[in-house]
């Protein structure tokens, strides 16, 4: 019997105001119970499909843990970092699914870019179907954190691509 697994990876590049690279990192994510339930509802039970997804940032402050039980409305182990100048979370530009050797992958076509509006520390990122900063609606699909907290200075940008796979 084959078993399925949902996984993903965030790729992050931080650039200084002059365009030089300050740092880069890659980290895997876990999916949430809410996200997996949504996937089954939308795919197998004619549930409402969310066709646009957004990347948000996880703050280092008040962070204790991620949980598969996290939802858009309740994620007690972390808070969203909104110290960027864009008015909403950044849209994930999902490419077409590609299948190879038993795995189907969807990768960002272009990066989601965040411009730091304050000096801050970022713990990680998440993927949600809601665009508003600090939204408690929508579906929280995935969350992930850096190996160690990453600092951002005013004017630096984070370019994030995301890839999700089903095996």
Could you explain the architecture of this structure?
The protein is mainly beta and 167 residues long. Helices cover 7% and strands 46% of the residues. A hairpin with a 2-residue loop joins strand 6 (98-100) and strand 7 (103-107). It is globular and about 45 Å long. The chain starts with 5 loop residues before the first strand and ends with a strand. The model has no long low-confidence stretch (mean pLDDT 95).
Strand content is over 45%
What average pLDDT do the residues reach?
95
Structural class based on helices, strands and sheet pairing:
mainly beta
Major sheet, described briefly? 11 strands, antiparallel
Count of runs of 4 or more consecutive helical residues: 1
| Overall body shape | globular
> Could you give the order of the helices and strands?
EEHEEEEEEEEE
Number of strands: 11
Low-confidence stretches: none
In percent, how helical is the residue content? under 10%
Distance between the termini: 13 Å
CA-based gyration radius: 16 Å
Annotate the secondary structure layout.
Elements: E1 6-15, E2 21-31, H1 33-44, E3 53-59, E4 80-81, E5 90-92, E6 98-100, E7 103-107, E8 112-115, E9 120-128, E10 140-152, E11 157-166
Antiparallel strand pairs: 1-2, 1-11, 2-10, 3-4, 3-5, 3-9, 6-7, 7-11, 8-11, 9-10
């Amino acid at each position: 019997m084959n078993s399925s697994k949902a996984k993903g990876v965030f790729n992050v590049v931080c650039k200084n105001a002059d365009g030089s690279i300050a740092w880069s990192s890659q980290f895997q994510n876990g999916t949430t119970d809410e996200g997996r339930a949504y996937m089954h509802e939308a795919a197998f039970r004619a549930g409402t499909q969310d066709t646009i997804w957004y990347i948000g940032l996880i703050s280092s402050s008040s962070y204790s843990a991620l949980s598969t039980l996290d939802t858009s409305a309740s994620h007690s182990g972390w808070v969203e970092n909104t110290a960027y100048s864009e008015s909403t979370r950044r849209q994930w530009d999902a490419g077409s699914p590609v299948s190879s050797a038993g795995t189907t992958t969807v990768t960002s076509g272009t990066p989601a870019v965040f411009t730091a509006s304050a000096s801050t520390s970022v713990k990680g990122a998440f993927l949600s179907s809601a665009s508003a900063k600090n939204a408690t609606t929508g579906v929280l699909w995935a969350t992930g954190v850096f190996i160690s907290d990453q600092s951002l200075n005013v004017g630096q940008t984070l370019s994030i691509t995301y890839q999700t796979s089903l095996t």
